[in-house]
UniProtKB/TrEMBL annotation:
GO molecular function, one term: cytochrome-c peroxidase activity
Top-level taxonomy: Bacteria, Pseudomonadati, Pseudomonadota, Alphaproteobacteria, Hyphomicrobiales
Region Disordered, annotated ranges: 239-259
Keyword Metal-binding belongs to the record: yes
Keywords (A to Z) from UniProt: Heme, Iron, Metal-binding
Domain of life: Bacteria
SUPFAM superfamilies membership: Cytochrome c (SSF46626)
Protein's name in the database: Cytochrome C oxidase Cbb3
Organism, as annotated: Methylobacterium soli
InterPro entries: Cyt_c-like_dom (IPR009056), Cyt_c-like_dom_sf (IPR036909), Cytochrome_c_Peroxidase/MauG (IPR051395)
Biased composition (Polar residues): 245-259
Annotated ranges, domain Cytochrome c: 128-239, 411-564
Length: 618
């Protein structure tokens, strides 16, 4: 990936931000590394079932946003708060093609988050990965359109990582230091994501009797004070540890650790196993969820009454009253409702929200295939084709081989496998990808209960599972009816548990064990963490600086050693930020330690064995 003329021209566009380059009508770029730049090319895995589908999947993984740059730039203001286009561009230019796992960017404008004020010129660790020789972060699509620069996100932002030791990109590896919570907290309008934080009611913020909005039923309700709610939303988002993301709009701060995309034989998907139906055993549903639910919160307006107890226009007014773009900003003193403001500026006015969606008749209800009845789709190709293509690509990804001692390696791994069997790990971590595909009730696994109930609110308006038939063109022709998706017997019970429906407490799926060397820290909350270096500090505190990442071997040891785990849990309980984010490291109390009759040498062999699992078993 050399410094080509197009890339240098792109850098100029970014830095000048439309001033001297206004003559260029449109430009768009998202980096996609070549095969020579990969630690382990995807074709080393299972052969794709369709070459064109596989190629589209890889391209979509790196470059498809489904239009989320509009929400992120115009509504949330990711480049209008503490971060700016100029400062991001400056940091990329100064990197000079060296590559990094953690792009350092100067603060452009002062931003206060809780009791901390970030001052202009201060460097922050974004955790953005930049491949060697590139001028753009992995997973960021930059667009220039007649003086307006936008940045959108793709799957590669969270699920591809630069490895500084090899100088290669690891496709499918979670971005373990991505500081997305802080970056969202630095945005101009973090309120646009407030429903992912612990703000159970807007009532404490409704302090101005003059700041009202007309509801869809014709009445009037107060809007929250925009500055007070913004301050609260910033604190909640900033609590997310690096390498985690809160993907559930349940009015509770409970981020989950970014998972790997080494997905073959790893179904069901999502931390709870909620993505279980549809193409690729639910993987396409998980891919869709990112863009239909997580990258455009305006799409939830029609479901706001069921999910948040809010009139749709109260919900939209709350999101839009601080929007940095005048076209999207709602003024309570104006003559338009928030819905009218959104529709006037919406690039996709025929669908809810701002992204490009095919809309099921059951929308905005969830139906176990899609959390809101929307299917992120690209015009000119079948409904959901990009999601299916990404599934085919992801299922072809294997983890790089993890470094291990070469002397007596075979004997060490054989011993580790024996300990794995003896300690009972294989009871759940069975099958080709070391998972039996079950969802375990939260009380049984012992992990944080609120996270397991993230989708509970959707039950009130749940629709029968359905999807558009394969090959349905997008835009969807008028009158096209979806087809039912079968859900029977034991699978129904598991899906209901994953969604915390039918009176269940919710649960967590048994994760696969492929690529553990790439995915520390462990458990769904990422709380089982031991810091790097000779100190090996327990808990997530050392990882709050994205310059440090969890030690995979020591963190795995904490997963199976009760004494070390107790130190991890105690450290997390003593950390206010971990408490706010509900990151505990508790649960999964299955031990391979002295108390279980496992010697230190056997435990070490088990850890080395687990780190060696880089591909599914045949």
């Amino acid at each position: 990936m050399g410094w080509s003329r197009p890339l240098l021209a792109a850098a100029g566009i970014l830095i000048l931000a439309g001033g001297a380059v206004a003559g260029l009508a449109r430009f768009s770029h998202a980096p996609m590394p070549g095969e020579a730049d990969l630690a382990r090319p995807a074709r080393a895995g299972a052969a794709p079932d369709d070459d064109a589908l596989f190629r589209r999947g890889r391209e979509a993984f790196y470059r498809e946003t489904f239009g989320n740059e509009v929400f992120l730039t115009d509504v949330m203001g990711m480049l209008d708060g503490g971060l700016s286009l100029y400062e991001v561009s400056r940091a990329l230019t100064l990197l000079a093609g060296r590559g990094t796992t953690n792009l350092q960017v100067r603060i452009a404008r002062p931003v206060t988050i809780g009791d901390r004020t970030y001052q202009p010129g201060e460097l922050i660790a974004t955790g953005l990965d930049v491949a060697r020789g590139s001028l753009f972060p992995l997973g960021i699509r930059t667009s220039y359109d007649r003086g307006h620069v936008r940045m959108g996100i793709t799957c590669a932002l969270c699920h591809a990582a630069f490895d500084p030791q090899s100088g290669k990109v690891v496709e499918g590896a979670p971005n373990r230091d991505l500081n997305v919570g802080l970056m969202m907290a630095l945005a101009a309008n973090t309120t646009a994501y407030y429903m992912h934080g612990s703000t159970p009611s807007l009532d404490p913020f409704r302090t101005d009797p003059e700041r009202t909005v007309r509801t869809r039923e014709g009445g009037r309700q107060r809007l929250p004070d925009p500055d007070a709610l913004e301050a609260a939303a910033k604190v909640e988002a900033a609590s997310w540890p690096p390498g985690s993301f809160d993907s559930s709009p349940d009015l509770v701060t409970n981020p989950t650790s970014i998972p790997s995309s080494f997905t073959a034989e790893g179904h069901p998907y999502g931390w709870s196993g909620h993505a279980a139906l549809g193409p690729y055993r639910g993987l396409s549903a998980l891919n869709n969820n990112v863009h239909a639910l997580n990258s455009d919160t305006t799409a939830q307006a029609d479901a706001a009454l069921a999910l948040f107890g809010l009139d749709p226009d109260v919900y939209l007014g709350t999101l839009l009253q601080r929007a940095p773009s005048p076209s999207f900003r709602f003024d309570p003193k104006g003559n338009k409702t928030p819905s009218q403001v959104l529709k006037a500026a919406d690039p996709t006015p025929d669908a809810p929200g701002l992204n490009s969606y095919a809309v099921l008749p059951s929308a905005p209800s969830a139906n176990y295939v899609t959390t809101n009845g929307l299917v992120a789709s690209a015009p000119g190709e079948p409904v959901g084709y990009a999601n299916d293509a990404m599934s085919a690509f992801q299922n072809s990804l294997w983890a790089p081989a993890h470094p291990a001692p070469q002397e007596n390696l075979a004997e060490i791994l054989a011993l580790g496998r024996a300990v794995f069997e003896r300690a009972g790990c294989a009871g759940c971590h069975a099958g080709p990808a070391y998972t039996d595909h079950r969802v375990i009730p939260a009380p049984e696994i012992g992990t944080e209960p609120s996270r397991a109930r993230s989708f509970a609110r959707t039950e009130a308006s749940l629709a029968p599972p359905e999807a558009f038939a394969p090959g349905t063109p997008f835009p969807v022709p008028a009158g096209t009816r979806p087809v039912p998706v079968p859900l029977e017997g034991a699978q129904r019970a598991q899906v209901q548990l994953a969604w915390a429906h039918a009176g269940t407490p919710g649960g967590y799926k048994v994760p696969n064990l492929i690529g553990l060397g790439q995915s520390a820290p462990y458990l769904h909350d990422g709380g089982v963490a031991v810091g790097p270096g000779p100190e090996h500090r327990p808990g997530i505190a050392p990882l709050l600086d994205p310059a440090f990442q969890a030690d995979p071997a020591e963190s795995l040891r904490a997963l199976v050693d009760r004494d070390l785990r107790a130190r991890v849990v105690a450290a997390n309980r003593a950390l206010p930020r971990a408490v706010k984010a509900r990151v505990t490291g508790e649960g999964h109390t299955y031990w391979a330690d002295a108390g279980a009759g496992v010697t230190p040498d056997e435990q070490e062999a088990l850890v080395r064995y687990l780190l060696s699992l880089d591909a599914p078993r045949e």
